[in-house]
Specification:
alpha/beta, Nucleotidyltransferase, domain 5, 6 helices
Length: about 230
């Protein structure tokens, strides 16, 4: 099962397959808001299938300062059965392969630099085609990413299944302001009013190997799908 890596380096959002280096998306976004990023990911999931995990930094919209660092976007990934691997703060080298790709593109020949600066959909599609199908990569034996990439067998569902909980669970709704009432006055679960998650996860230290790191669920205190 593939691991996807994603980086937002304004105004460009890029998403790649960690093993083959296939650049799956290169999109120009005005800001990294969930409402802008999620449609891009939905399009990628429909075309390439669901990954086993997604590796990101701790910035917006991938993480938050709320419970477990979950954001609306990463809570959606949990609903889809995707593990979220967050690199440690201040350690971009843990997503070094993707970061190097960004540097390579920005430091490339003048025509590539102009494409990135223009941020037009047509130009960025052409950049993806060149990167994936025409430019050999020394790190993968001077092959192209397109020659090595294998699509995921997991299809993007048309709709998410309803949430089900065992009878022993006490179910409480979280307000849009991030508060829940539990046998007492309501308590805040997040510092962001836009977040509504109830889970706590430890960030996973990531490597540059093709296989995703395993994520420990020992720190999960409650179901993230209540968001």
């Amino acid at each position: 099962m593939p691991t996807f890596t994603i980086v937002y380096s304004g105004p460009t959002l890029t998403l790649a397959d960690a093993c083959s280096r296939m650049l799956l998306s290169c999109a120009a976004l005005r800001s990294p808001k969930t409402t802008r990023v999620k449609p891009v990911l939905e399009m990628i999931f429909r075309e390439f299938g669901l990954p086993e995990c997604i590796r990101t930094d701790n910035g917006t919209p991938f993480a938050s300062r709320g419970a477990g660092g979950l954001s609306r976007l990463s809570a959606w990934w949990v609903r889809l059965g995707i593990r979220h691997e967050r690199i440690e703060r201040g350690h971009p080298e843990q997503n070094g392969r993707h970061e190097r790709m960004h540097r390579t593109l920005k430091q490339a020949d003048s025509s590539t630099a102009r494409i990135i600066a223009s941020n037009t959909a047509t130009a960025l599609r052409q950049l993806r085609k060149e990167f994936n199908e025409e430019r050999p990569h020394e790190a993968i034996g001077n092959d192209t990413p397109a020659a090595l990439y294998r699509a995921s067998a997991r299809q993007y569902p048309r709709r998410l299944s309803p949430l089900e909980y065992p009878p022993s669970c006490e179910i409480r709704k979280v307000t849009a302001g991030g508060r829940v009432r539990w046998k007492a006055p309501s308590s805040a679960l997040t510092t962001h009013s836009s977040e509504t998650s109830l889970a706590s996860f430890k960030p996973t230290v990531c490597t540059t190997s093709c296989s995703p790191m395993s994520v420990s669920d020992s720190s999960m205190t409650s179901d993230p799908n209540l968001a």
